[in-house]
Amino acid sequence: MKQTTILALAVLFLSAMASHTYAAKPQGRTKNDEPGTTAHRPNILFIAIDDLNDWTDTLKGNPQARTPHMDQLAAKGMVFTNAHCAAPACGPSRSAIMSGIRPSTSGNYINKSSLIHNPILNNSVLLPEFFGRNGYYVCGAGKLFHGYHFNNEVKGRGFDEYYPSKTQDLPSFEGLKFASKLPLNGWARQADWGPCLPGVTVDDHPDGKTANWATKKLLGGNLKEPFFLGAGIFMPHLPNYAPQEYFDRFPLEDIKLPEGFREDDLNDVPAAHAKMAHNPWLKRIRAMNQWKPAIQAYLACTSMVDDLIGQIVGALEKSKYADNTIIVLWSDHGFQLGEKERWAKYSLWERATRVNLVWVVPGVTKPGSTSARPVNLLDIYPTLASLTGCKPPKKQLEGNDLTVLMKNPEATWNKTSVTSFGYKNYGIRSERYRYIVYADGTEELYDHQKDKWEWHNLVGNSDYAEVKEKMRKGIPAHHEPSGITYELPARKRNAR
Question: By the 8 A CB rule, do 217 and 195 touch?
Fold first, then answer.
């Protein structure tokens, strides 16, 4: 009787353990799954956009913007309306996204900071590698990593397939634009914008080719599952070229200058940021009477990008993968088009750090939902790991899992979003405030509930002393010195 009881208990224990193991097992296959498994992890459509600020229908940063396809995508899932980049520059922002590591931890602060020669980043599991190790077919096209890094360093690392190739992330821009007269008389190599040559269509544009590749992959129906498919759109990064039809959508006579521009905007800004944010572009653009044409070009390119997003997402919706694919769309940082007297990214102010972040997760996100909680692009990696049931790399990821906000946009979220721009320079965003601190100890503080354009620096106002001290708690504890930089070979230099 005693032996029978013991045997019965053992059977029950083993049965319970088996049940627990089955329930805890992530949905989907991994390289270690037994042959013949029918479980499938969700696929991932990973859409990146370069230099797109909050001039979109979803974020409503400028009423002139028209992005109906992004708006339609947002209506299917969740928009994080207070999302920010880890760094206001392409290279360090994308390195942070792909590694899940803060710039202040890696020392990767500027575009020419090396990725593979940085021991912290090079020894990390990059996002494409992570999904490859978890049984995903990993493919991509266009600008996902920073071009310097991908073409000269990463060289397709982690990807099973890449278009145009594992050593070239973008198709050529040659033949798109008249070069006889540059808007600023050739003053800067990237300072070019305007309609493409007559006869050039969106299909001839590098971004059009990237979108066509992604479309073909999705509609072909032969992608190995689960898959991670990345599509990196280069526009509206300078030079701003788009077919004439997109310029026609924004007649020059209807273009309005940015509402957030003020001639005396920098009078209450510390010298540290005035020096950091020094940017002669806007002055030159205004002197050459090119402000409205430049804004027109940015809007035109953004409109083209929106059409391409509609094309890619539309292809997914028509495909057999639609019901089991996570969509995450992001822009790597913002861009100032006159605000803070600047025509650039490279600052810690709102228009440079605020980004587009849209998620559509079948069975998780609610259609048309939004969250104003402060989040960061650094959160993409841990969120994708969580949603796919893949175990994240140990002691690597510094972002937060956003699934709690996807399920409840108003969930308690005692976190701030941190942007780094160089050693010990930080912009910290809460739901209401922006706090900026520089390596020399000088500061800025803005109340976005009352001052969305950040015109009034409140750091010296005693009424906000408690707010400032609370915001300071978001400053990273570690400040890694600048990482290794390198100069791109002259023959490789281009408009990026």
Answer: no
Question: If you average pLDDT over residues 256-278, what whole number do you get?
Answer: 88
Cβ proximity of 374 and 430 under 8 Å: yes
Largest Cα–Cα distance in the chain? 98
Q: pLDDT grade, residue 200 (50/70/90)? A: very high
The answer to whether 380 and 131 are in contact (CB under 8 A) is: no
In a domain, 440, yes or no: no
258 within a domain of the structure (yes/no): yes
470, with CB counted inside 10 A (0-12, 13-18, 19+), is: middle
Strand partners, 358: 79, 329
As a whole number, mean pLDDT of residues 362-366 equals 97
117 is catalytic: no
CATH number at residue 46: 3.40.720.10
pLDDT tens digits for 414-464? Answer: 999 999 999 999 999 999 999 999 999 999 999 999 999 999 999 999 999
Token duo for residue 403: 């699934």
Distances, alpha carbon 424 to alpha carbons 145, 354, 443, 475, in Å: 24, 20, 12, 9
How, if at all, do strands 426-429 and 417-420 pair? antiparallel
Q: How far apart are CA 140 and CA 131, in angstroms?
A: 13
Angle at 174 between CA 170 and CA 175, to 5 degrees: 135
Ramachandran sector of residue 436 (left: φ over 0; alpha: ψ -120 to 50; beta: rest): beta
Cβ-in-10-Å burial (0-12, 13-18, 19+) of 174 comes to: exposed
Q: What are phi and psi of 292, to 5 degrees?
A: -65, -45
Q: Has residue 431 been placed in a domain? A: no
The tokens for 135 are: 């049984």
* Candidate list 69, 85, 139, 146, residue with the active-site label: 146
Residues 6+ apart with CB under 8 A from 288: 183, 184, 185
Domain that holds residue 86: 40-425+474-492
- Please report which residue ranges of 262-389 form alpha helices under DSSP H: 271-276, 281-287, 291-318, 350-353, 380-388
Contact present, 333 and 48 (Cβ < 8 Å):
no
210 bridge partner residues: none
Q: Would 49 be classed as within a structural domain?
A: yes
| Domains of the chain: total | 1
What pLDDT shows up at residue 279? Answer: 79
Residue from 39, 29, 42, 140 nearest 94 by CA: 140
Closest to 376 (Cα-Cα) out of 71, 88, 118: 88
252 with 292: CB under 8 angstroms?
yes
Beta bridge partners of 33: none
Confirm whether 278 is a catalytic residue.
Answer: no
